[in-house]
Amino acid sequence: MKLAKIVVVGSINMDVVIRVPHIPIEGETIMARSVQYYGGGKGANQAIAMSRLGGDVHMIGRVGKDAHGQRLYDNLLENGTKTAGVEWDEDQPSGTAYIYVSDRGENNIVVFSGANSKVDVAQISRYEHLFDDAEYCLMQMEIPRETIEHTVQVCKQKGVKIILNPAPAQPLSEQILEGLYILIPNESELDLLCPGPGSLEEKSAKLYGSGVQNLIVTLGAKGSMLMNEAGVKYFPAVPVKPVDTTAAGDSFIGGLTIGLSNKMDLEAAIQYASLVAAITVSKMGAQASLPDLAAVEAYLAGK
Ligand code: ATP
């Protein structure tokens, strides 16, 4: 069976994890215990989640012409993501997230979007051919909004179904929302998109009313909720002992899109996504914890 082609338009970051005795206060200089580098960025994480599950995944993104950029580019390739749409920026360094983690487990994160801020309309136009035979386009919000708006128009013209993860949450224009195949926020993103009082269902109904075909809200250990023309349906999380929930959302979205590209119906794809995300939360790390097909099969065989 030929897999449906998936285009990811999104961020590619180096996550720099800096372990410190405590989070420094204003004006304070402290020594780090260790510094570690990990591939990250929601775009790259979701692309890699899907590539490891056997997807035909094409990334459009941007890295700096620096050592981080080379590592991030190689990391995509090594995981099976197609990188023809990834460009090297002459001026901006690679996107970087500086993550301070204290001995008490508190964290502070500073993100520099760098080359991600230059994923522009012109770059999408240079790779428009990638959308010609694509079935799904997956986006998040770590690249400029006008690029997302333009990509939405390209996808509409070419009949590509759009899956949007509104993270980090920011107000979404009608132009983006109208006709989206799937909008998939987590609970706090839903709250930011629909501020004020109201239950999960009320806020979801408001967002669903803006013209998306399917709204899925991920609810952490409580699972997820689907709202569409058939009504509202809840999906439990797959019970596991959580070790590290980092990348749960990226892995759920990757599993969901792969399920759909394998011709599962939406409900079966949500169940597959829940399984993939549960395996991710049972392991340490972000990209390191994203399972491949063998890990999914091993998990099922162990059940
Ligand atoms: P993150 O920002 O950490 O990547 P998120 O907030 O975007 O995560 P969540 O809603 O926390 O995403 O989780 C996504 C999905 O992962 C959930 O819908 C659920 O299926 C699964 N999941 C999350 N936490 C657990 C858990 N403790 N046990 C089992 N499954 C979980």
Give a written overview of the molecule:
A hairpin with a 5-residue loop joins strand 11 and strand 12. Helix 1 packs across helix 8, helix 6 crosses helix 7 and helix 8 packs antiparallel against helix 9. A nine-stranded mixed sheet has the order 5-4-1-8-9-10-11-12-13, with helices on both faces. It is globular, with a radius of gyration of 19 Å. 34% of the residues lie in helices and 26% in strands. It starts with a strand and ends with a helix. The chain is built from ten helices and 13 strands. The chain has 303 residues and is α/β, with parallel strands linked by helices. It binds adenosine-5'-triphosphate (ATP). The site of adenosine-5'-triphosphate (ATP) has 22 residues, from helix 8 and helix 9.
Number of strands: 13
Largest sheet: 9 strands, mixed
Strand order in space, largest sheet: 5-4-1-8-9-10-11-12-13
Number of helices: 10
List unreliable stretches of 5+ residues: none
Mean pLDDT: 96
Envelope shape:
globular
In short:
With 303 residues, this protein is an alpha/beta fold.
Q: What is the element layout, followed by pairings?
A:
Elements: E1 5-9, E2 13-20, E3 34-40, H1 42-52, E4 56-64, H2 67-78, E5 82-89, E6 95-102, E7 107-112, H3 121-126, E8 134-139, H4 145-158, E9 161-164, H5 174-177, E10 182-183, H6 187-193, H7 200-208, E11 214-218, E12 224-228, E13 231-235, H8 248-261, H9 266-281, H10 293-301
Parallel strand pairs: 1-4, 1-8, 2-6, 4-5, 8-9, 9-10, 10-11
Antiparallel strand pairs: 2-3, 6-7, 11-12, 12-13
Helix pairs in contact: 1-8, 6-7, 8-9
Bound molecules: adenosine-5'-triphosphate.
